[in-house]
Amino acid sequence: MPEPRTLEFPFPPSVNHYWRHTIVNKRHRVLISKKGREYRSAVRRFVGLGCKPMAGRLAVSIEAFPPDRRKRDLDNMLKALLDSMTHAGIWHDDDQIDEVRIVRREATAGGMMRVVVSEVGPEA
Predict the structure, then answer these.
(1) Number of other CB atoms surrounding residue 66 within 10 Å
(2) pLDDT tens by residue, 69-106
């Protein structure tokens, strides 16, 4: 199995800021917000070009370093981060993830997310 990948990303917007709700042709739509699109682009830049997607079953371990000491729900950080990592080509699809672990760390100026992705099994 390939070596685990350790990556560091900017701190994500909460799920409440990643999505926006709108009406298009009299139908309710949920779209990625401007903040969400900017975050996806930032993650893509951090990954860089030429990243070969991981193909097997995956475990993702995340250390969240918030930008300040405000209260935050850990689960609200996951969607923007994992969706952005899919968009950046870390893996083919986030349905490959069988295990997720997230730990809150101390507040860090600007905030960041340290992510370790490991293959835990072959492709299904």
Answers:
(1) 20
(2) 999 998 888 999 999 999 999 999 999 999 999 999 99
